[in-house]
Specification:
By secondary structure, this protein is of the alpha/beta class. It has helices at 8-12, 69-73, 75-83, 98-101, 114-118, 122-141, 158-167, 201-208, 229-237, 245-260, 302-315, 330-351, and strands spanning 24-26, 29-30, 49-53, 63-64, 67-68, 90-91, 96-97, 104-109, 145-149, 171-177, 212-220, 241-243, 268-276, 319-323.
Length: 355
């Protein structure tokens, strides 16, 4: 479980690191996939994609979902730590080396004020959100796809959706993987209507940005008895394309789901991809209860999430984000690395005419 995760010093002793020079953002935080670091927007020029960390957790009292906040906050760093064990960008499953065709850079972490994580007032949360927005806008200015590794909303979701919506000349599609709809009427933590928080960020995205269109929302993974009928039907009545896990495991299958991705792209100028990794829930390569009280049965497997990532990469995406990364499991952090690399591999393959 979470307290068994090794230190960077222990990880670094692996033979996988022998003789390799790895760029470091901090003494215990390597760059993603040991790729070059960009410390300014100008240094990002020429990059096809930019990794951005958003270590933010919506907690009160030092805990989130029954797990210490410090474990959640370590997510962006630990994903990078696990990524550095891979010696190249060659994806043998697809016979393509991503880095031969695309420049990936690590743009560091957003400057989220420490008090935002431990004193979650509305003003502090808005400051944290603004810090992520600034990094995302810098990446978009430089022509790089922002890929944000976060933990909670708004910093790992709405703060990416908002800049994409503001820049798009037309409608914006969304592909969202989640266990929960995150569409309550108001943020549970602050009760402030300005906040697109963990329980309501998706509702706020569609409220604040009319060019995010529900008919272009591909919603994947919700299941069980977690929502009221009225909420689900309100999206259905507006034209959502909803794929609960039961349907994926019965008549649709993962290849059928991949074919359904086209709904996010029809008539849109941009597509935002959001991974709430509690979608893996009680299935996949880690213990079902690693997510604390967020774990649910019939979760997606690691393969299913990665297969979808490849399909999304082939079709294209404007930006992506990750939240609720199960804390403490090295293999789950590695799953995030695979998702990112398979998305980028899909982009490369499409550009090579192998889509």
């Amino acid at each position: 479980m979470s307290n068994a995760y090794p230190s960077w010093e222990e990880i670094r002793k692996s033979h996988r690191f022998a003789g390799r020079e790895i760029p470091m953002l901090l003494p215990d935080m390597p760059s993603f996939m040991a790729q070059p670091i960009a410390r300014t927007k100008n240094e990002l020029r020429g990059a096809g994609a930019a990794i951005i960390g958003a270590p933010y957790v919506a907690n009160a009292g030092g805990m989130y979902a029954g797990v210490p906040a410090t474990e959640w906050l370590a997510g962006p760093k630990r994903v990078r730590q696990q990524s550095a064990r891979y010696p190249s960008g060659y994806v043998q499953d697809l016979d393509v080396d991503v880095f031969e065709h695309m420049k990936l850079m690590d743009f560091g972490d957003a400057e989220i004020p420490e008090e935002s994580n431990y004193n979650p007032t509305a003003e502090n949360i808005l400051r944290a959100q603004a810090a992520v927005e600034a990094k995302v806008n810098d990446a978009l200015d430089a022509g790089a796809i922002p890929i944000v590794i976060g933990q909670n909303s708004p910093c790992g979701s709405y703060a990416i959706a908002k800049p994409i919506a503001e820049r798009a000349s037309g409608n914006v599609g969304m592909i969202s993987f989640d266990t929960h709809w995150d569409s309550n009427p108001i943020d549970r933590l602050t009760k402030d209507p300005r906040i697109a928080g963990s329980s309501n960020w998706k509702a706020k995205t569609y409220e604040f940005h009319p060019n995010f269109t529900v008919k272009n929302l591909v919603e994947i993974g919700e299941r069980g008895m977690l929502e009221r009928r009225e909420l689900v039907h309100s999206y259905r009545d507006r034209g959502i394309h909803f794929y609960p896990m039961w349907r994926i495991r019965t008549d649709l299958g993962i290849e059928g789901l991949c074919r359904e991705m086209h709904h996010a792209y029809e008539g849109t100028d941009a597509v935002y991809v959001h991974y709430d990794m509690d979608v893996m829930g009680g299935a996949g390569p880690a213990p079902g209860d690693i997510l604390g009280e967020l774990a649910e049965p019939i979760g997606m497997s690691d393969y299913e999430v990665i297969r979808c990532a490849l399909e999304i990469g082939k079709r294209g995406f404007t930006g992506a984000s990750f939240i609720c990364i199960p804390p403490g499991s090295a293999v789950i952090y590695r799953t995030i690395v695979y998702v990112i690399m398979f998305m980028l591999a899909g982009r490369v393959l499409a550009g090579l005419g192998r889509g």
